[in-house]
Amino acid sequence: MYILGIETATRTGGVAIVSEDGVLAEYTLNIEVTHSERLMSTVDRVFKDTGLRMASIDGFGVSIGPGSFTGLRIGLSTVKGLAFTTGKPVAAVPTLKALAWNTPHARYPVCPLLDARKKEVYAALYHYDGRELVQDLPETVLPLAELAERVAGEVLFTGEGARLFAGDIERFFAGRAHLAPRSASVPSAASIAEIALDMISVGRQTGPDGLSPMYIRRPEAELAWEKRERSR
Q1: Which residue among 81, 92, 97, 108 is the one 20 to 30 A from 157 at the CA level?
Q2: Are 128 and 135 contacting, i.e. CB atoms less than 8 angstroms apart?
Q3: Over the Cα atoms of the chain, what is R_g?
Q4: The sheet that has 177-179: what strands, in order across it?
Q5: Same domain? 128 vs 203
Q6: Is the domain of 35 the same as that of 63?
Q7: Whole-model pTM?
Q8: Do 128 and 104 touch, CB atoms closer than 8 A?
């Protein structure tokens, strides 16, 4: 089974192809170029480098958020189009779960973080039970100080938010915090594809009509529109 994974929830975007035997190809880029400009050319590149074709793909995995509203829309619309065209199944993979997947068999609970702006972070909490990644805290958005009150014991932090707020994490968690390596702290399309492979293998899949982003916080444009409507 070949799975094409797409990650566009943050500026670090990527495309990967995995099978039961491992990662065949992964391309990751963290530069100031929009996902709309690079995503399909990256898909073409992994097919060219692996010698596979779209017809070879058995399913898709896509990062559904939380993350950049624009990035998520681009990734989801692309996968919807591919799924409609090919008729292949899709696995909707939470972005924070994929970040926790980057730190397998971690000794401590894993807390992936992304910058939610407004002095808040997107966060969740997981622990490993053997190979299984178990979720202890659902995806949420909150200030780091509040997260420290809700999470006890030592914690392994990963994700771009962990690096961005490293000083605040050390202050609020008072010696309880550990930081994952930089290489494990960026979103990985291969992790998206691996999780998707497991999901599709046991029937936890959806069609393109069932795909929707996990924003956690509503888009600013939507909130601004509602505010204008109420003021009329």
Answers
A1: 92
A2: no
A3: 18
A4: 132-142, 120-129, 110-117, 155-158, 177-179
A5: no
A6: yes
A7: 0.92
A8: yes
Assign residue 26 the CATH number of its domain: 3.30.420.40
User: Number of folded domains in the chain?
Assistant: 2
Q: What is the pLDDT of residues 60-112, one digit of tens each?
A: 999 999 999 999 999 999 999 999 999 999 999 999 999 999 999 999 999 99
Whether the Cβ atoms of residue 108 and residue 151 lie closer than 8 Å to each other: no
User: In terms of domains, do 200 and 144 share one?
Assistant: no
- Let me know whether 8 and 91 are in one domain: yes
Residue length, the chain? 232
Using CA atoms, how far apart are residues 33 and 54, in angstroms rounded to an integer? 25
Q: Tokens 């888009």, residue?
A: 219
Place of tokens 């494990």: 184
Determine the structural domain holding residue 39 and report its residue range: 3-95+187-228
Same domain? 112 vs 47? no
Residue type, position 230, single letter? R
List, in order, residues 6 or more apart from 170 with CB less than 8 Å away: 177
